[in-house]
Write a structure and sequence with these properties.
By secondary structure, this protein is of the alpha/beta class. It folds into 2 domains: 128 residues, Glutathione S-transferase Yfyf (Class Pi), Chain A, domain 2, CATH 1.20.1050; 140 residues, Rossmann fold (3-Layer(aba) Sandwich), CATH 3.40.50.11810. It has 11 helices and 8 strands. A 4-stranded parallel sheet has the order 2-1-3-4. A 4-stranded parallel sheet has the order 6-5-7-8, sandwiched between helices. The longest helix is centred in the N-terminal third of the chain and has 18 residues. The chain is globular.
Length: 296
């Protein structure tokens, strides 16, 4: 197993980026590597990984979705490493596949019949994790705190989980789905002041953008409005798709609803990097749609 090849005191993960780290967002791979290096984490790309289907493929064929995502998990199993994805949607889909196959031996065998054509076998014994639990539990809050060299004291922050690490509540087995704390636990270590707001549990509407853009915009605006009412300096989310939506849609919100939010939104690893002494340039904050001009 590949984990036995490393005796460097670091945590090693099989890395599944999903599709969201494409185009300009490919920068997040570099950002993750920089940030995780600060906390002794090393990522290893899973060879031949493919799109998880984002829940769309299973609408046509559950078996196809199960086989595709079992195949992705096989990549991590072969490497002997925990399966890590920063994408909350990918985590949701793949976690559901793992649970479904663990509960149904007939489906488990059917999937392996399909995978046998590629000469691979899904064993189902791997660990799946996400940025939240990697930092809060694997790395640990104590070590993270030791690596913070630029505490973000006084920064008023609205935390936002999004839907797909929380729902359904029986797939992630890390913390309460109704009352998660991992994001706030991490933010406290970074030194920020966490501000409550009434729309924190609302869906941002990312996945409904294609069938119904108007409804998606209303949903996104509702989340932003709730945070803005509390006069926060910025929002931070652990979901890269929520980040893309909350940051990128604000110009559309101004045009459609006349709501000029201009509310900076950060992807959690960016804020961790800043607290660990990296610069705005290191974290490529100039790529944001809404300028990040608050004190960092």
């Amino acid at each position: 197993m590949i984990e036995q090849q490393y005796d460097d005191g670091k945590l090693h993960y099989a890395f599944y980026s999903g599709c969201c780290f494409q185009g300009t967002d490919a920068r997040f791979f570099d950002i993750l590597n920089q940030v995780f290096d600060k906390v002794d984490v090393k990522l290893h790309l899973i060879p031949d990984a493919i799109c998880c289907g984002a829940g769309v493929i299973e609408e046509r064929s559950e078996l196809t979705s199960l086989a595709i995502n079992a195949r992705n998990m096989v990549g991590a199993e072969k490497m002997g490493l925990p399966f890590y994805t920063p994408c909350s949607t990918c985590f949701n889909v793949i976690s559901n596949v793992q649970k479904r196959l663990a509960e149904d031996t007939k489906l488990f065998d059917q999937v392996n019949e399909i995978l046998a054509k590629d000469g691979v076998e899904y064993k189902g014994n791997g660990k799946l994790t996400h940025t939240l639990w990697m930092l809060a539990q694997d790395v640990g809050l104590e070590k993270l705190g030791q690596r913070v060299t630029n505490p973000l004291n006084g920064l008023r922050v609205a935390s936002y989980y999004g839907c797909h690490t929380r729902n359904p509540g029986d797939i992630q087995n890390y913390e309460s789905s109704d009352n998660p704390t991992s994001l706030e636990d991490i933010l406290k270590v970074l030194g920020v002041q966490i501000i409550d707001y009434d729309s924190s549990d609302n869906c941002c509407g990312y996945h409904i953008n294609w069938p119904n853009k108007d409804l998606s915009l209303k949903m996104t605006s509702s989340v932003l409005q709730g945070a803005q009412k509390q006069k926060v300096d910025l929002m931070v989310t652990s979901c890269p798709l929520c980040f893309k939506n909350l940051d990128g849609v604000q110009e559309n919100a101004l045009a459609a609803t006349k709501q000029d939010f201009q509310l900076p939104v950060l992807f959690l690893p960016e804020l961790v990097g800043l607290a660990c002494g990296m610069s705005a340039e290191d974290m490529k904050l100039d790529y944001h749609s809404v300028p990040v001009q608050v004190r960092l």
